[in-house]
Design goal:
alpha/beta, eight-stranded parallel beta sheet, 9 helices, 8 strands, binds pyridoxal-5'-phosphate
Length: 224
C-alpha cells in the first residue's frame, strides 16, 4: 500500500471516529487540499476513491483542472479571492467557493456571474477568531450579510458557512471559534454546508458539527 493511501486511510479513520462520536447520522465530506501537491498525487488519491479537492490560488486551480480534466473531480476554491481574478475563477466553474469573506466580494461575484448567466455556489467565510490577518465577516455581521446575499445575489447560491479556528494550540480557544460558527450556521436560513476543520483541528470541528472539512498537510506532506 502506498504512503499516500495510508495517510488518506488514517485521516478517514479519524473522521469516522469523530463523526460517530458526534452522531451516527452525521455525514462528513472530505475536501483534500491539494495546494501543496502535484497532479500525480491527486491522481493517486482519485484511484483511492477521493473526488473532492481544494485549491487556494486561481492559477493553480486552472492548471490542475486542465491537467486532470479527464477525471470527474469536484473542485473547491478555498483561497483569498482578488477582484481581478473573479472572472477567471467563475470561468472554471468550481463546485463551491468557500472563501467569500465580505458583502463587497459577494456583490462583485454576483455581478460577474450574472453577466455569464450562471449561478455559483458559495460559502460565507466567518472570522470567528477575530484575527486581523484572516479574511471573513465578523460573527456579529454574519447573519445580516448572509441575508443580504440571499436577497440581493440571485446568481449566487449561499450554501452555508466556512470558518477557521483561532491559530493556537489552545484546544478551548479552537473549540470556542468553531462553536461561534456552528451557532451562526444554525441560525442561517437554508444553510446546509458547514466547512470547518483543517489538519490540526478537524476532529474538534466535527465535534462542533462540521460537515465538510478541508485537510491538506496531513494527507499530502510526506514524513518519510
Ligand atoms: C491550506 C488550507 C487548508 C488545509 O490546511 P492544512 O493545515 O494543510 O490541512 C484548509 N483551509 C484553507 C482555507 C487553507 O488555505
Amino acid at each position: 500500500m502506498s504512503n499516500l493511501k495510508q495517510k488518506l486511510d488514517f485521516v478517514l479513520q479519524k473522521i469516522e471516529s469523530a463523526r460517530l462520536a458526534y452522531s451516527r447520522h452525521h455525514i462528513v465530506r472530505l475536501v483534500a487540499v491539494s495546494k501543496y501537491s502535484e497532479v500525480d498525487k491527486i491522481m493517486e488519491l482519485y484511484q483511492c476513491g477521493q473526488r473532492a479537492f481544494g485549491e487556494n490560488k486561481v492559477q493553480d486551480l486552472a492548471s490542475k483542472m486542465q491537467q486532470l480534466d479527464v477525471l470527474p473531480l469536484q473542485w473547491h476554491f478555498i483561497g483569498n479571492l482578488q477582484s481581478n481574478k473573479i472572472n477567471a475563477l467563475l470561468d472554471l466553474k468550481p463546485f463551491l467557493i468557500h472563501s467569500v469573506g465580505s458583502l463587497e466580494l459577494a456583490l462583485a461575484l454576483n455581478q460577474r456571474a450574472q453577466a455569464k448567466d450562471m449561478v455559483q455556489k458559495i460559502l460565507l467565510q466567518v472570522n470567528a477568531s477575530y484575527e486581523p490577518q484572516k479574511g471573513g465577516v465578523k460573527p456579529e455581521e454574519c447573519l445580516e450579510i448572509g441575508a443580504r446575499i440571499q436577497e440581493e445575489c440571485q446568481h449566487l447560491k449561499l450554501e452555508g458557512l466556512m470558518g477557521m479556528a483561532a491559530q493556537t494550540s489552545d484546544v478551548n480557544a479552537i473549540d470556542r471559534s468553531f462553536k461561534i460558527v456552528k451557532d451562526l450556521f444554525d441560525s442561517l436560513q437554508g444553510a446546509s454546508v458547514l466547512s470547518m476543520g483543517m489538519s490540526g483541528d478537524y476532529e474538534i470541528a466535527i465535534a462542533n458539527g462540521a460537515n465538510l472539512i478541508r485537510v491538506g498537510s496531513e494527507i499530502f506532506r510526506s514524513y518519510f
